Amino acid sequence: MAGAAVLGRLTWLVTEVTGAVLETPRVRTLFLDAEGWLGHRAGQHVDVRLTAEDGYQAERSYSIASAPQDGLAITVERLDDGEVSPYLVDEARDGDRFEVRGPIGGYFVWDGTDDAPLLLVAGGSGVVPLMSMIRHRAAVGSSAPARLLYSSRTHEDVIYRAELDELKARNDGLVVFHTLTRSQPEGWTGYARRIDEEILREVAWPPADEPRVFVCGSTRFVDTAADGLVALGYAPESIRTERFGATG
Does position 3 have pLDDT exceeding 50, yes or no? Predict the structure, then answer.
C-alpha cells in the first residue's frame, strides 16, 4: 500500500463520477471510479484537477471519505468563491470526468492494526478523513474503542449525521459527542460551545491509556484542540493533526 501511495502521488488519473449524496446544503459526497486507482489508507487525501474548455486548470486537495474497502469517495464543502468546490457540490453529475492524483499522506492515517483507543476530534468538514477511519474500523470489525468529538455550527451542518447515529447505535465501542457552536435545536443535550479544555477533559481518554489521537479542522480549531490535549497531559508528539485552509 505504501508503494501505491507513492506512485499515485506522481500520476494524474482520469476519474468518473458514479454517484453522489448531499450530506448538508453545502456538503456533498462524490463516489468516483478512477482508472488505475491502487487503493488508499484511512486518513489520506487526493488532489482534484479540473480542466476548462480553454485549457485553464484548477487544482484542490480533498480528504478521502471512504473506507479502504469501499473504493474512492470524497466529501466536499462548497466555498462560494472557490474554483473547484462549487462545481463538485452543485454541478458534477454521474458520468462527469475529471482528474485525481493520490492517495497522498502517510502521517495522518489509521490502519486499525492494534486495539489502542482511538480519539478523533473534528471541526466542520475536518470530520471527513476521520469518517474514513470510523468506516474502516467498522469494516474490519476492530475492537479498538473509539470516541469522536465533533464540532459543527448547527445541527443541519453535521456531516454524516444519520450514518454516525447508525454506527453509534451498534454499541460496538464507538461513542460520538457533538457540540453545536452557533445554534441548537430544542431539547439539545449535547455541548453548545466551541471545543475547550473542559470538554476535552470530559471526552478524551486519560493520557495513560495511550490512545491514537487525530485532530482535523481549521488551523484555529486544531491549535485549540491540540493545546487543550497537551494541557491535559498528552505528549505533543502523540497528537496527529491535519489543518484545512479556506481554499475551494
Answer: no
pLDDT of amino acid 246: 63
Domain ranges of the chain: 2-104, 118-244
Question: How far from chain centre, in Å, is Cα 116?
Answer: 20
Cell 450514518 appears where? 163
Return the CATH superfamily for domain 2-104: Translation factors (2.40.30.10)
Q: Provide Rg for the chain, Cα atoms.
A: 18
To which residue does cell 470510523 refer?
A: 134
Task: Flag whether the pTM goes above 0.85.
Answer: yes
Class of domain 118-244: alpha beta
Are both 2-104 and 118-244 of the same fold? no
d(CA 37, CA 102): 8
pLDDT for residue 9 is more than 90: no
- Kindly report, residue by residue over 82-117, the tens digit of the pLDDT: 999 999 999 999 999 999 999 999 999 999 998 999
Q: How far is CA 208 from CA 94, 117, 205, 211, 238, in A?
A: 48, 11, 8, 8, 12
Cα-Cα-Cα-Cα torsion 187, 190, 196, 197, nearest 10 degrees, comes to 130
Which residues is 31 bridged to in the sheet?
19, 73
Q: How far apart are CA 77 and CA 27, in angstroms?
A: 4
Peptide bond into 103 cis (omega under 30): yes
Strands 146-152 and 174-180: parallel
